[in-house]
Amino acid sequence: MRKLQLIPYVLVFFIILILACIPFQRAIVFQPNHSQAELAYIPLKEETLFQIKYTHSIHLSDVIESFKITPNYLIQLYELKYEDFAIGMPSNAEEGETFEEKDGAYYIKNMKRDFPFFYLRIGQVRANHTVIYKNMEFPLSRSIKPGTSVKVEIRKLNFLKLWKGVNILESI
C-alpha cells in the first residue's frame, strides 16, 4: 500500500525533471571551447540587436561590430565601425554595402553577412571585449576568463543550462 502512495510523487518528480530539460529561453550564448567552464548567455526577449566592441590590438582604437538576430536564429553582421585604416581593417565596402566617414570614424553599412555562429577569443591584455545590449555595456571578462575562446551562437536554453550558466546581464 505504501508503494502505491509514492507513485504520484515519483510521477511529479519525473515531470519536473523532463520540463527542466526542455529548451525554452532564446539566448545569445558564449560557449567556451576546449574548456569545462560554464556557458555565459544573454537572455533574449523582443530585442534582436547587439554589438561587440573591442580595442584593436594594433591601432589601439575601438571597433564596433553590430549584429542582428534573424528569425531563423542566424547572427547577421550588418554594420562595422572603426577609426583607423591599417592592418586587419577593411578599406572599402563590398558589393551592396555602403562606406561612409562621419566624425572621424569609418562605417561599413548595409552589410548582410549571416553566420550560424562565430568564434571569439576574449582578450587578455587590451582588447576589452564588451557586449552592448539595450544600450548597456557588459565587459565579457567579468563573465568569461580572459584568453578563453568561445563560440557565439543563438540557441534556446533549458532551465538547467540557465541555472548552471552565467547570465551576462547580471554580471555587473
Explain this structure to me?
15% of the residues lie in helices and 42% in strands. It has 172 residues and is mainly beta. It has one domain. Strands 3, 4, 5, 6, 7, 8, 10 and 11 form an eight-stranded antiparallel sheet that branches. A hairpin with a 6-residue loop joins β3 (49-55) and β4 (62-69).
Present the secondary structure layout:
Layout (H helix, E strand, L loop, with lengths): L1 H19 L4 E8 L7 E4 L5 E7 L6 E8 L5 E8 L15 E5 L2 E5 L3 E3 L1 E5 L8 E4 L2 E4 L9 E9 L1 H6 L1 E2 L5
Brief rundown of the structure:
By secondary structure, the protein is mainly β. It is 15% helix and 42% strand.
User: Helical percent range?
Assistant: 10-25%
Average residue-wise pLDDT: 87
Order of helices and strands: HEEEEEEEEEEEEHE
Beta fraction? 35-45%
Q: Count helical runs.
A: 2
Q: How many structural units, i.e. domains?
A: 1
Number of strands: 13
Q: Give the uncertain stretches in residue-range form.
A: none
For the biggest sheet, the summary is: 8 strands, antiparallel
**Large-scale geometry:** elongated
- Alpha-beta content class: mainly beta
- Our Rg estimate from Cα atoms comes to 20 Å
Distance between the termini: 54 Å
Oligomer: single chain
Name the descriptors.
172 residues, 5-stranded mixed sheet, single chain, 13 strands, mainly beta, 42% strand, 8-stranded antiparallel sheet
